[in-house]
Write a structure and sequence with these properties.
single chain, alpha+beta, 79 residues, Glutaredoxin, 3 helices, globular, 38% helix, four-stranded mixed sheet
């Protein structure tokens, strides 16, 4: 099963939108989801602060700013 990591922050409307997309996709394509609040780690703020939300699949960055549902389903179905 894939591990998806969503890097974001509280009070981030794009992060909220990303979570909605992930919840919808998860109903048809199960995956493990890790949510990381970058505001608790200065290194993560430096790395992702201007790009959140950032989504990684199995450690590989695949989206920033917005998650495209159709493309995410394609990536997850590749195995």
């Amino acid at each position: 099963m894939h591990v998806l990591t969503l890097y974001g922050a509280r009070e981030c409307c794009l992060c909220d939108d990303a979570k909605v997309v992930l919840d919808r996709v998860r109903k048809s394509m199960p995956f493990n989801l890790e949510m990381v609040d970058i505001s608790t780690d200065p290194e993560l703020v430096e790395r992702y602060g201007t790009e959140i939300p950032v989504l990684c699949i199995d450690g590989v960055k695949v989206f920033r700013y917005r998650i495209h549902e159709k493309k995410l389903l394609q990536l997850l179905s590749r195995g």
